[in-house]
UniProtKB/TrEMBL annotation:
Keywords: FAD, Flavoprotein, Monooxygenase, Oxidoreductase. PROSITE patterns: PROKAR_LIPOPROTEIN (PS51257). Residues 8-363 form the FAD-binding domain. Pfam families: FAD_binding_3. InterPro entries: FAD-bd, FAD-dep_Monooxygenase_BioMet, FAD/NAD-bd_sf. One of its GO terms (molecular function) is FAD binding. Coiled coil: none annotated. This is FAD-binding domain-containing protein. Belongs to the paxM FAD-dependent monooxygenase family. PANTHER family: MONOOXYGENASE, PUTATIVE (AFU_ORTHOLOGUE AFUA_2G01680)-RELATED. It comes from Exophiala bonariae.
Length: 432
């Protein structure tokens, strides 16, 4: 098998989580990988991320499980509270153990930059050439048999496969569609907050941070989520509420007072956390309309991650599904034995990834509907259903997809490597 291996030149645009996951996966497939990243350095962009078993199982396969565990926090409980008084609507104890038993991989919380640096280091170990401060302008796939990446510097690079992993404001996507294509507002925004335990004196808050759990508070048109990071030394809070940022503005330093006012009558434990905040970022939450294809006609240029499926963070799947994309793509490219097989691998990637990712995007909007109900009859009905399952193993379609027995298994049970292997082997057997 090794003798027949066809080394491909792959250029990945973007060293975010999608790009680095693809770099590792393609690196393990022994291709020549170059990553072009616009940023001068990998800095603390973003905040906490919830990493679910569909992504964490890949860390084991990629040999970074131990490094990830050292910087993660694994929550032992997941609870949903009514916003106003903190009343528990849903609670799963031994959440960590249950998840590991069901999915053979953990549910963990991390700072985005910690994960990005671990992925970066692994990519470098695998021989990936990561070039920072390399902003691309476009991908030209029309002028020859090979796609060409054109950089802002004027340089242009040719390769066998281009992977567009350049995020929400993707230039690769625009090149593929042949037109400008701005992401669409979802109508919501997120306040992202990270607190350090060393700066907090309140003993109850300190104890909550050092004992990792996940807590949601759900209310009219808004919800909040809080969880620990870095082994219980940091706390991440995301507040989700209606978007009031002007059109065209996607991120802003928020006003702490305005943020506290919005959540002023919420559960006192949440407002005590919010009183610790001295600065906050406000992010407009964007999505995109589904497009017919994530690949070009020649099948040598492909989109992954937020460039093709940005989503509401209400199921914490944006990064997880971007990591899945990278894993599937690289694994499929490991089966390529001649350059003529590239279109086969790219088509298979799209057939495996597009429908799943778009289903997750739709599910995030359903989660918003369920979490953001105004007080009234539907909310009372929802809370009655929540409470009917309290203290039991949930056995009904559940308003929180985080523990729903219908949604959680397909979301968390996905094994990207197995999916890619099964599809490749089946497809190759049909061709013989
Ligand atoms: C409030 C909030 C909370 C979230 N919580 C979670 C969570 O808990 N779990 C989860 O899974 N997801 C979460 N997400 C989503 C997650 O952060 C994204 O889906 C994920 O980071 C997307 O990764 P990406 O690599 O596709 O894009 P990005 O992380 O945006 O990376 C794109 C990279 O491409 C580079 N780039 C851009 N343009 C160019 C160019 N022209 N040339 C070269 N390089 C370029 C950028 O500098 C960047 O490094 C959350 C998002 C938000 C807003």
């Amino acid at each position: 098998m090794e003798d027949a291996h066809q080394k491909l030149d792959v250029i990945i645009v973007g060293a975010g989580l999608a790009g680095l996951a693809a770099a590792i996966s393609c690196g393990l497939a022994k291709h020549n990988i170059t990553v072009l990243e616009a940023a001068r350095q990998l800095t603390e962009i973003g905040a906490g991320l919830q990493i679910t078993p569909n992504a964490s199982r890949l860390f084991k396969a990629w040999g970074i499980e131990t490094e990830v565990a050292a910087l993660a926090a694994e929550p032992s409980l997941l609870a949903v509270h009514r916003y106003s008084d903190g009343k528990i609507l849903a609670q799963e104890d031994a959440f960590d153990q249950n998840i590991r038993r069901k999915y053979d991989a953990p549910f963990i919380d991390m700072h985005r930059v910690d994960l990005q640096k671990i992925l970066y280091k692994r990519a470098i170990e695998l021989g990936v050439d990561v070039r920072l401060n390399h902003r691309i302008l476009k991908v030209d796939d029309a002028s020859g048999s090979k796609p060409r990446v054109v950089l802002e510097s004027g340089q242009s690079l040719e390769c066998d496969v281009v992977v567009g992993a350049d995020g929400l404001w993707s230039k690769c996507r625009e090149s593929m569609l042949g037109k400008a294509d701005a992401p669409l507002p979802t109508g919501d925004l997120a306040y992202r907050i990270v607190l350090e335990i060393d700066k907090i004196t309140d003993p109850e808050l300190r104890s909550r941070i050092s004992n990792p759990e996940v807590h949601f508070w759900i209310g009219p048109q808004a919800h909040a989520v809080g969880y620990s990071l870095r082994g219980g030394t940091m706390y991440n809070i995301v507040l989700l509420c209606p978007d009031d940022l002007p059109p065209g503005l996607s991120r802003l330093n928020g006003s702490v007072g305005e943020m506290q006012d919005l959540f002023t009558n919420w559960d006192p434990i949440l407002t005590r956390f919010l009183r610790q905040v001295d600065s906050v970022d406000k992010w407009k939450l964007m999505h995109r309309a589904e497009v017919p294809s994530w690949t070009n006609i020649q099948k040598n240029f492909v989109l992954i991650g937020d460039s093709c499926h940005p989503m509401l963070p209400y199921l914490a799947q944006g990064a997880n599904s971007s990591i899945e994309d990278g894993a599937v793509l690289g694994r499929l490219l490991s089966y390529v034995r001649s350059k003529a097989q590239i279109p086969w691998a790219i088509e298979l990637y799209e057939s495996l990834r597009k429908s799943r990712s778009e289903m997750i995007v739709r599910e995030t909007f359903h989660q918003r509907d369920a979490f953001h109900m105004p007080d009234g009859d539907s909310q009372i009905e929802r809370d009655t259903l929540f409470l009917s399952q309290l203290g039991k193993e949930v056995d009904a379609k559940f308003p929180s997809r985080w523990t729903c027995p219908e949604v959680q298994p397909w979301l968390y049970g996905y094994d990207a490597i197995k999916e890619a292997d099964n599809a490749a082997i089946l497809s190759l057997s049909k061709r013989c």
